[in-house]
């Protein structure tokens, strides 16, 4: 039988009755005891008819004898099906076969049914699925008014389903209209959850698995799945460090940090290892986050940092459905520092000179002109806010289109889209094209085949020579008394920082990052027996990157000020071309078995996996191009040519298995194991074994608990323990490397010298993580209130680090398995959904988690005392390290008390400077007095979702934040003019800086000096970085538009406001964010259409 995509479109969407055609079309069929299926094939060959039927319902293996010459198709079918239980119905050139009790179905027995689907309160349900039982090719979707129309056989049974409601079946009989009322389904225990290499009923899941569904992220107007997931899952910490278009959208950590290598989780999209940056939110059906050993051990050595399983949408049998989601938006930078004016700068500069015992530079007359705006900008008398000049309101738009449909044998989902985002800093932009095709083919009654294909093409742009982040940093240092341009149209200039606006104008050149990503997944599934299934999973992924950077020749001058002479400089132009490719090939094969005997249920799965990873990189550059219009590399000076390149290869071979048992879905037990072999380790240490075990008890199913079920509808206890591994290290770490350098003379010639550049260690092996988890799942008040709570302890041993070696060795030490880190914490998820009256539905959701991180053992390793963050035994990983301080020296009494010890640190220390505590109590301040002064890992991360629906209106808002965090402000945020005037002060510096000439108690910033002694790593600069952010606010209205199943228009705001005590920088990245691209707020209008 032939079933094509075109035929499915015709049958579902455009079928029409033409009885005369069936009588006019003649066929000749000679059959001598052959299967009916062959007769049907012959009819299809001789005519335009297409047969559609369910192979599991209609038996066409029966043999038949026919001698039909020049007979109508209807006559042939009547003869062939006489005395059988097979019905047929004709619609245009389509013939539908059904199982029944009559020997034929005439055309008149197919009739049209219209109806409306409503909820218990009489409100229409939009998008409900209406189908004929056992005939998946006959279906419809309710429109904006809950109405549907469907052609069905007489006495058919309609099935109506909608997410969150109890499915209903309706016997049609001879009815022509039906009104259907669906009841809300608060019992979600029969939901399935995606787990490693399969799915499980939610009731049977006894691991710590967090699920995020499509409807939780579908309406968020974001182009990044990282942004969409922020705050949606307990135990998942997401830090978005940048608002730059196309840049890495943030770090994702599951239950803390268990290594000081790569701590990112494993991400699998339909079984393919992918970057979260390559996932399109609108294509996602569900996200499962595996947080403990029980759920993640099936991935063994790749799961130490947790696993994120993303399932994309698939086609559904029934009428062809088109959808469009699009939005246009404006973006602006958030948390932008407010700078001091030019006259405030001048006053602070003069005070700095006085503090240094020197004469002021700016005259009172000049300060007056700066203050009243009567100065000449060409003479350095402007009043420029460089952040305002640099930043802009930037547009973005995003469009996603999908089509899905199919029949009993074949379903498809095709999605494509385009997004274009301009940056709030000029020269930055990102655009992306995406295409996904997911198909499912039921080739036979026992063979199913999934085929998924994706393609992404993107281009990211920014300025050369440091790009937008460098320009943003320089805007905080630019001189406010200089204009952006002089009156003659030429760019102004600065002493230290070049003009930040010019840097992103195109004068300095450009960087273009191209990326092409392709993935293909072929997944056959063979049904051997009931419950016995063999699955394959063959995937190919390729990412090809090309970076093209052209640095133009730029002539720039410095401005004469403070006795410094003006200079003119000219740099050389340069072209750099980089090409790299990452390829990943995966082959999985597994066999699973499920069997229920009475009250006992058993499931088992075993499989094997092979993955290969290959990376290649090439770089070439030249300088001194004839002019800035020649940007192809062959136009540069050949004598300046430089080339570089390398390639790496890795492989991972695995065997894995899982076995589970439950009694009446009340007592549950599961064992999982994986055996991994990695090429990243030497032969004797390549293999590792990673087992786990878990237990579950649904106490709500016990007889003694039944009196409480009116209040506690579900209660389950869980416990698990297991071992996970980590192999996220660079390739070839166990090899020693030889590099060139150190030329020498031999035979009267200069010879290239070679020496060992890196020591290898063949003894290195897996980092291993022992995980213990106890949890509880609960549902109260008929599951209107549901939630989970987990407590866990995770200890990671054999962490790879580089220990100290004697300097005389002349080479860095090799890495070795030496460190131990422990994470201990808890996760809480709560959800409440209910209604008030007939029209008002509401929901409240909350996730809250905490983790305490501690370094247990470093085998003597010590961080450099000059580092801001350090690794110290007994302290959190990357603890903030520095001096403890006692405030600012405000008067002579403070000076007399501390001047002896402080002058050992700073000989010019005086009133207005910061006081450092002598922890070592030796009468001096030095590195021995440094200690842990803060924790860089946030505590009490949370997200709160609020939403309600009122008739056709919907509203949602999402708050996200951190309850406890230490932030450290650095560089421009604290230095003001300190350092000789290379920084530009902010308004808070002007208002809160201690002035020895006019002391003000409680000043936060020390006196202004040319030196930077006050800005060593000190607790004085630790601030409370806890915050609450309105991450998203959205209001939408669904209109009743003829021809549309859904027509929704919405307004949305992203990152609308932040409540925090943290000064200047964004609290989401509270340590070291001075070099970041600013975070952004997004204001958008969009539509969601289904038709």
UniProtKB/TrEMBL annotation:
Residues 1-17 form the signal peptide. This is SusC/RagA family TonB-linked outer membrane protein. Its main location: membrane. InterPro entries: Beta-barrel_TonB_sf, CarboxyPept-like_regulatory, Plug_dom, Plug_dom_sf, Secretin/TonB_short_N, TonB-dep_OMP_SusC/RagA, TonB-dep_OMP_SusC/RagA_CS, TonB-dep_rcpt-like. It is a multi-pass membrane protein. It is found in: Cell outer membrane. Residues 49-100 form the Secretin/TonB short N-terminal domain. SMART domains: STN. Belongs to the TonB-dependent receptor family. Keywords: Cell outer membrane, Membrane, Signal, Transmembrane, Transmembrane beta strand, Transport. It comes from Bacteroides fragilis. The keyword Membrane applies. One of its GO terms (cellular component) is cell outer membrane.
């Amino acid at each position: 039988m032939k079933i094509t995509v075109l035929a499915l479109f015709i049958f579902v969407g455009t079928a029409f009755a033409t009885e005369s055609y069936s009588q006019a079309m003649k066929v000749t069929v000679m059959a001598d005891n052959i299967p009916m299926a062959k007769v049907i094939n012959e009819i299809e060959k001789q005519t335009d008819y297409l047969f559609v039927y369910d192979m599991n319902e209609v038996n066409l293996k029966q043999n038949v004898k026919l001698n039909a010459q020049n007979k109508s198709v209807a006559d042939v079918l009547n003869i062939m099906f006489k005395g059988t239980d097979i019905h047929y119905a004709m619609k245009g050139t389509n013939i539908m076969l059904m199982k029944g009790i009559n020997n034929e179905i005439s055309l008149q027995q197919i009739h049209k049914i219209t109806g409306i689907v409503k909820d218990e309160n009489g409100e229409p349900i939009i998008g409900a699925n209406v189908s004929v039982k056992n005939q998946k090719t006959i279906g419809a979707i309710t429109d904006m008014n809950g109405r549907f129309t469907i052609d069905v056989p007489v006495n058919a049974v309609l099935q109506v389903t909608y997410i969150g409601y109890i499915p209903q079946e309706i016997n049609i009989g001879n009815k022509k209209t039906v009104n259907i009322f669906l009841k809300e389904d608060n019992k979600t225990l029969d939901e399935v959850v995606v787990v490693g290499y399969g799915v499980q009923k939610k009731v049977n899941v006894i691991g710590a698995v967090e699920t995020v569904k499509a409807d939780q992220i579908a309406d968020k107007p974001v182009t990044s799945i990282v942004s969409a997931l922020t705050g949606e899952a307990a135990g998942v910490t997401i830090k978005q460090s940048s608002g730059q278009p196309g840049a890495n959208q943030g770090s994702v950590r599951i239950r803390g940090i268990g290594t000081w290598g790569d701590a990112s989780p494993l991400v699998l999209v339909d079984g393919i290892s992918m970057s979260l940056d390559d996932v399109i939110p609108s294509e996602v059906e569900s996200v499962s986050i595996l947080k403990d050993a029980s759920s993640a051990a099936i991935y063994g050595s790749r799961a130490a940092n947790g696993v994120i399983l993303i399932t994309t949408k698939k086609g559904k049998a029934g009428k062809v459905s088109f959808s469009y989601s699009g939005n246009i938006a404006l973006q602006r930078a958030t948390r932008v520092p407010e700078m001091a004016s030019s006259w405030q700068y001048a006053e602070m500069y003069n005070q700095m000179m006085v503090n240094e015992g020197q004469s002021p530079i700016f005259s009172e007359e000049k300060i007056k002109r700066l203050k009243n705006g009567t100065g000449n900008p060409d003479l350095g008398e402007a009043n420029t806010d460089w952040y305002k000049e640099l930043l802009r309101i930037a547009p973005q738009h995003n469009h996603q289109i999908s089509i899905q449909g199919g029949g009993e044998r074949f379903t498809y989902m095709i999605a494509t889209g385009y997004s274009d985002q301009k940056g709030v800093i000029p020269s930055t932009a990102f655009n992306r094209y995406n295409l996904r095709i997911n198909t499912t083919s039921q080739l036979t009654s026992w063979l199913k085949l999934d085929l998924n294909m994706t393609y992404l093409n993107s281009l990211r742009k920014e300025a050369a020579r440091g790009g937008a982040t460098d320009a943003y940093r320089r805007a905080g240092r630019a001189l406010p008394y200089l204009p952006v341009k002089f009156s003659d149209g030429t760019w102004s200039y600065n002493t230290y920082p070049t003009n930040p606006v010019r840097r992103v104008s195109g004068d300095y050149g450009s960087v273009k990052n191209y990326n092409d990503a392709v993935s293909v997944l072929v997944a056959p599934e063979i049904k051997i027996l009931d419950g016995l299934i063999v699955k394959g999973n063959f995937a190919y992924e390729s990412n090809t990157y090309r970076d093209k950077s052209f640095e133009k020749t730029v002539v720039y001058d410095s401005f004469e000020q403070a006795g410094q002479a003006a200079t003119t400089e000219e740099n050389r132009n340069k072209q750099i071309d980089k090409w790299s490719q990452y390829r990943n090939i995966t082959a999985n094969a597994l066999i699973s078995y499920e069997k229920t005997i009475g009250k006992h249920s058993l499931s088992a799965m075993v499989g094997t996996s092979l993955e290969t990873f290959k990376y290649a990189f090439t770089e070439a550059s030249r300088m001194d191009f004839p002019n800035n219009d020649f940007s192809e590399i062959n136009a540069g000076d050949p004598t300046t040519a430089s080339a570089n390149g390398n390639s790496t290869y890795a492989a991972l071979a695995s065997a894995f298995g899982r076995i589970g048992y439950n009694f009446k879905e009340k007592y549950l037990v599961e064992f999982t194991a994986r055996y991994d072999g990695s090429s990243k380790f030497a032969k004797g240490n390549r293999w590792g074994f990673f087992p786990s075990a878990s237990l579950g008890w649904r106490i709500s199913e016990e007889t003694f608990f039944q009196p409480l079920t009116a209040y506690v509808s579900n209660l389950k206890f869980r416990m698990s323990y297991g071992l996970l591994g980590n192999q996220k290290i660079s390739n070839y770490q166990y090899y020693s490397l030889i590099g060139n350098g150190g030329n020498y003379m031999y035979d009267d010639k200069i010879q290239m010298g070679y020496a060992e550049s890196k020591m290898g260690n063949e003894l290195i092996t897996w980092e291993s993580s022992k995980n213990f988890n106890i949890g509880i799942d609960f549902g109260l008040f008929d599951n209107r209130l549901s939630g989970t709570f987990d407590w866990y302890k995770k200890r990671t041993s054999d962490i790879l680090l580089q220990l100290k070696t004697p300097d005389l060795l002349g080479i860095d030490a090799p890495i070795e398995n030496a460190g131990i880190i422990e994470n201990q914490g808890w996760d809480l998820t709560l959800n409440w959904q209910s209604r008030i009256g007939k029209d008002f539905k509401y929901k409240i959701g909350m996730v809250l988690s905490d983790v305490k991180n501690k370094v247990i053992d470093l085998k003597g390793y010590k961080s450099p005392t000059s580092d801001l963050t350090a690794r110290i035994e007994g302290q959190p990983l990357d603890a903030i390290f520095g001096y403890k301080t006692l405030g600012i020296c405000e008067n002579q009494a403070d000076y007399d008390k501390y001047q002896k010890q402080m002058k050992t640190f700073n000989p010019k220390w005086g009133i207005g400077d910061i006081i450092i505590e002598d922890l070592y109590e030796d009468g001096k301040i030095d590195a021995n007095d440094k200690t842990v002064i803060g924790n860089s890992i946030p505590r009490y991360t949370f997200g709160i979702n609020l939403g309600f629906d009122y008739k056709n209106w919907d509203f949602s808002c999402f708050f996200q934040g951190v309850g406890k965090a230490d932030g450290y402000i650095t560089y421009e945020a604290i230095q003001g003019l300190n350092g000789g005037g290379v920084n530009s002060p902010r308004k808070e510096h002007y208002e809160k800086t201690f002035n020895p000439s006019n002391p003000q108690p409680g000043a936060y910033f020390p006196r202004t000096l040319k030196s930077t002694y006050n800005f060593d790593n000190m607790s004085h600069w630790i601030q409370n970085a806890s915050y609450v952010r309105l991450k998203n606010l959205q209001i939408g209205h669904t209109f009743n538009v003829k021809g549309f199943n859904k027509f929704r228009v919405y307004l949305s705001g992203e990152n609308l406001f932040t409540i925090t005590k943290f000064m200047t920088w964004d609290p989401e990245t509270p340590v070291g964010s001075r070099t970041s691209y600013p975070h952004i707020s997004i204001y958008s209008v969009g539509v969601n259409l289904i038709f």
